[in-house]
Amino acid sequence: MRSVKVSDVMWNHIEPIRCGTPLTRVVKTLLENHVSGLPVVDNQRRVLGFVSEQDCIHALLVSSYHCEGDPIVDDVMFREPVTITAEMAVVDLAQNLGAGKPKVYPVVDHGKLIGIVTRTAILAEFARIGCGVELPKYASADDD
């Protein structure tokens, strides 16, 4: 387990949120990708912040109440996100998970975003390598 690195479980296919993105577009991206939050980056992919579902809910609730229009991600993002490296051991990351901790971690290399790791990806890896978790059986067309 110690040999499994963040690079083995990270997602690198999700496009990060760019500064200036309208919050309604952020919400659409979160929903399309089934993630609870995403890093916010500049044009060089440097991580400037992080935006979560909760940030979006609160901001959209307030803006609709005050009829303020569509806020942008810069107005609501958390500006000091925790980032990790691709070489970090998954077990070390897992030991730091808990209440009040991020559910999604931006993965950086030389200060630039290269992917994200979710709690779901860590859990799936534990199940895959047999850490006492049995994967659910999904019915396939062949089972009928």
| CATH fold descriptor | CBS-domain
User: End-to-end span in angstroms?
Assistant: 37 Å
In which range does the helix fraction lie? 25-40%
* Backbone shape: elongated
Enumerate the strands of the largest sheet in spatial order, edge to edge or round the barrel. Answer: 1-2-3
Care to count the β-strands?
6
InterPro entries: CBS_bac, CBS_dom, CBS_dom_sf, Diverse_CBS-Domain
Protein name: CBS domain-containing protein
Domain CBS: 10-68, 77-135
Keywords: CBS domain
Q: What is this entry, summarized?
A:
The protein has 144 residues and is an alpha/beta fold. It is 34% helix and 19% strand.
Can you tell me about this structure?
- With 144 residues, the chain is of the alpha/beta class.
- The chain has helices at 6-9, 23-33, 53-65, 73-76, 90-95, 119-129, and strands at 17-18, 37-41, 47-52, 84-85, 104-109, 112-118.
- Strands 1-2-3 form a 3-stranded mixed beta sheet. Strands 4-5-6 form a 3-stranded mixed beta sheet.
- β4 (84-85), α5 and β5 (104-109) form a beta-alpha-beta unit.
- α2 runs antiparallel to α3.
- It starts with 5 loop residues before the first helix and ends in a 15-residue tail after the last helix.
Question: Which secondary structure elements does this structure contain, and how are they paired or packed?
Answer:
Layout: H1 6-9, E1 17-18, H2 23-33, E2 37-41, E3 47-52, H3 53-65, H4 73-76, E4 84-85, H5 90-95, E5 104-109, E6 112-118, H6 119-129
Helix pairs in contact: 2-3
Which features does this protein show?
CBS domain; CBS-domain; CBS_dom_sf; CBS domain-containing protein; 6 helices; 3-stranded mixed sheet; Diverse_CBS-Domain; CBS_dom; about 140 residues
